[in-house]
Design a protein that fits this description.
This protein has 206 residues and is an alpha+beta fold. The protein contains six helices and five strands; from the N terminus they run βαβαβααββαα.
């Protein structure tokens, strides 16, 4: 089924503005925030679920932080390290969140995990956490390592890439809402295709 004219997509944003997340301590702060630990433990009820790719899900937050930091030792350039992480958020619209929850208790988790899988298969470890706000809104945080586990090189996310991921993630959500034909074969953990441009995205999903 095609997209209805009144359908509104969720909003995907990257919070890694100029000069942000450049301190090693920022890794601890953001991961603990997403997992609602330490100073954010009082808000633990807001955490619906969480998971990770390329990081030990069976560990505590401290084990995940250590594994996240260890990957960055692969970066060998001697100049300024720059950004340690990308903090990205997909905000589900009320319609998306309600439809997914009505479909299955695990539908939000499934959509978030597919989104995180895309990032991981581009070569970057990622932890995600789904939060529910007091007002009822639902969003998923992605904490992305800026050093590739595959190449040891830095991630360079820009507005075009953020827009591309937003389009792809909205497509995943629509699929989970049963608005599209079955695309499961595109998103297996072992073989998630990587598209670099809008044209490649259209070819991938056509």
């Amino acid at each position: 089924m095609g997209r209805r004219d009144d359908y509104k997509e969720g909003l995907f944003i990257n919070r890694a503005g100029k000069g942000r997340y450049q301190k090693p301590g920022d890794i601890k702060q953001v991961i603990r925030y997403v997992l609602r630990e330490r100073s954010d433990e009082g808000r633990r009820s807001e955490l619906i679920s969480w998971g990770a790719f390329g990081l030990p899900e069976w560990e505590s937050a401290e084990g995940i932080i250590k594994a996240f930091s260890d990957v960055q030792s692969c970066y060998r350039r001697k100049d300024r390290f720059g950004r340690r992480l990308d903090h990205e958020i997909y905000n589900f619209t009320p319609s998306e969140a309600e439809t997914l929850r009505c479909k299955s208790p695990l539908a939000l988790e499934k959509a978030a995990r597919k989104m995180a899988g895309i990032i991981y298969n581009e070569g970057y470890c990622v932890i995600y956490g789904i939060h529910q706000e007091d007002e009822g809104g639902v969003h998923v945080h992605f904490v992305v390592n800026t050093v590739s586990w595959r190449t040891g090189r830095k991630r360079h996310e820009n507005m075009e890439r953020t827009r591309f991921h937003g389009q792809l993630f909205a497509r995943i959500v629509r699929h989970e809402m049963r608005r599209l034909p079955d695309l499961d074969e595109l998103f297996s953990r072992e073989d998630i295709p990587v598209a670099r441009t809008a044209e490649e995205l259209e070819a991938l999903l056509s």
